[in-house]
TrEMBL record:
InterPro entries: Class_I_gatase-like, Peptidase_S51
Family from the record: Belongs to the peptidase S51 family.
GO molecular function: dipeptidase activity
E.C. designation(s): 3.4.13.21
Protein name: Dipeptidase PepE
Length: 235
């Protein structure tokens, strides 16, 4: 049975790394003391080792140990043997490229669909959807495919931002960009605001956190849903 947390971000304003969700993660990872970390998204271009240290420091607060997948000689076996998996944020195109390069797409899907607990934040959440076409990141590398893990039957837009009515900026809003996506694509998109996450248990998907999410469906007006809304039928 799938057991997934798809979080908009690792850090909310005014708090430390994963601090806003640590109590949830303590329960989520209760049966896994060791967590396999996928640092390939490399926020700001930092090294895999430096990113892994950030994750280690964050999880040490709930007495969990972290090991980066880059430390293993066989990444595929590392995924297959993992008791739990965390894919961090950064650049979604880089993360996706590296997953394809290391032949990890199929093993990750199999592991998570078989019940290995999986936490994704930002880029690590983007790859849970059908494709990465609704990421906010620059395409600084070219992955072999935009197809992602397909752990949920829709796309994710982490860090969803509402229009700033006081701004003089005349560029596209996040909502406009998602509407552009729906000119050429039909899957729904969930706009996850900072501090929100999706809890996936088997086929059940529920919005968690204190904020609403914005839902975009093909040929329908966008709408808001409250925390604790069941989104299992969104497809």
């Amino acid at each position: 049975m799938k057991n997934i947390i798809i979080a908009s971000t690792s850090t909310v304003h005014g708090s430390g790394y994963l601090e806003y969700i640590l109590s949830e993660l303590e329960t989520f990872f209760k049966n896994a003391n060791n967590i396999l970390f996928i640092p390939h998204a490399r926020p700001g271009g930092i090294s895999h080792d430096d990113y892994t240290k950030i994750a280690k420091d964050g999880f040490s607060k709930i007495n969990k140990t972290i090991r980066g997948i880059h430390e293993f000689s066989n990444p595929v076996e590392a995924v297959k043997n993992a008791k739990a998996i965390f894919a961090g944020g950064g650049n979604t195109f880089v993360l996706t490229q590296q997953l394809y390069k290391n032949e990890l797409i199929a093993p990750l899907k199999e592991a998570v669909n078989s019940g290995t607990p999986y936490l994704g934040t930002s880029a690590g959440s983007n790859i849970c959807g059908l494709t990465i076409k609704t990421t906010n990141d620059m395409p600084i590398v070219y992955p072999p495919s935009f197809n992602a893990l397909g752990l949920v039957p829709f796309n994710i837009n982490p860090h969803y931002l509402d229009p700033d009515t006081s701004s003089t900026h005349m560029g596209e809003t996040r909502e406009m960009r998602i509407k552009e996506f729906h000119v050429y694509n039909t899957p729904p998109v969930i706009g996850l605001r900072e501090g929100s996450w999706l809890q996936v248990r088997g086929n059940n998907i529920v919005l968690k956190g204190n904020l609403k999410a914005r839902i975009f469906e093909y040929n329908k007006p966008a709408y808001e849903v409250d925390a604790e809304t069941d989104l299992s039928d969104l497809k």
